[in-house]
Amino acid sequence: MTARRPPGYWFGDAPVPAVSRMLASVYAGAIAMRRRLYAKGILPSRRVPVPVIVVGNIAVGGTGKTPLTIALVERLRAEGWNPGVASRGYGRGDEAQALWAERDSDPAVAGDEPVLIAYRSGAKVRVDRDRIKAAQALIAAGCDLVVCDDGLQHYRLARDVEIEVIDGQRRYGNHRLLPAGPLREPATRAAECDFRVVNGGEAGFGEWSMQLQVGDAQPLQGGRARPLSTFAGQRVHAVAGIGNPERFFATLREHGIAVVPHAFADHHRYIAADFEFGSQLPVLMTEKDAVKCVAFDDPQHYSVPVRAELPEAFWVSLLDKLNR
What is the structure's pLDDT at 2? Predict the structure, then answer.
């Protein structure tokens, strides 16, 4: 299943259809009512006895939440915390089932992002659509801090720190709410977040810049990693089933690689037929895709890892807030 492109009016100048504007008005009323109910305590938020950091976004689509979550876990662990990760596990088979995601879990069962986080960070990762129960399970397992991968709009779980991740190129598009635009909540919601992290592009006043640094290509079947420079000047099949596939393709092109792009829907479940491209070229894919493709026994399949880098001042500010 190829990726569905967002409507042209979300991030372009095309006119917004009248029906989309009408539905966006209904949606705006619903989310405003929901926020009022939480603000008045009619819908209660519940606090757990350890700090909670929520990493999320206001605009839909891939913004870089998972790489930032992994970076948070690694840095917090280095500072003496024992962080665990709570995730809903979007795209998995049975979202009603709560479970632990391990580095070798089936992504179809545990979710691709939770498995990737467990693989990269080694942290305890609890998958549960009820994030309060996920946080409680992590605390019972010995974690003294909970990082929520996504969940900015999941107000049932009280949080100590909110981090909004923004696509530095797309930003908020036309600044309209779904389905007239890409926003889950009004753009003014960003002012309530403790940190605003911009993935790529230019960070503005009060924002923190995050850059995703790519590593060597890792063969899915094991073996020696290859620097991306060894693919320069070659044609490769590039596979991305993420929120913004073009970001991955552009990264490869920046390394001089001739990309034959293959964009799939976010959280796509791959089958062998998806890789019948008609030519025997190396296949480079994101880590999120790679965890779902290890079973395909092809030595030409490579995963391209990324690492989130942020200014040291960001970490100082975050740790200061946690300590306070």
Answer: 54
Whole-number Å distance between alpha carbons of 77 and 144: 10
What CATH number is attached to the domain comprising 130? 3.40.50
Q: Rounded to a whole number, what is the distance in angstroms from the first to the last CA of the chain?
A: 47
Domain that holds residue 73: 19-211+309-323
Task: Please state the length of the chain.
Answer: 324
- 225 with 202, same domain? no
Which residue has 């372009």 as its token pair? 12
Distance CA 141, CA 132 (A): 14
Q: pLDDT tens digit string along 277-318?
A: 878 899 999 998 998 888 887 888 999 999 999 999 999 999
Number of domains comprising the chain: 2
Give Cα 181 distance to the centre of its chain: 19
* Same domain? 176 vs 84: yes
How far is 253 from 145, CA to CA, in rounded Å? 38
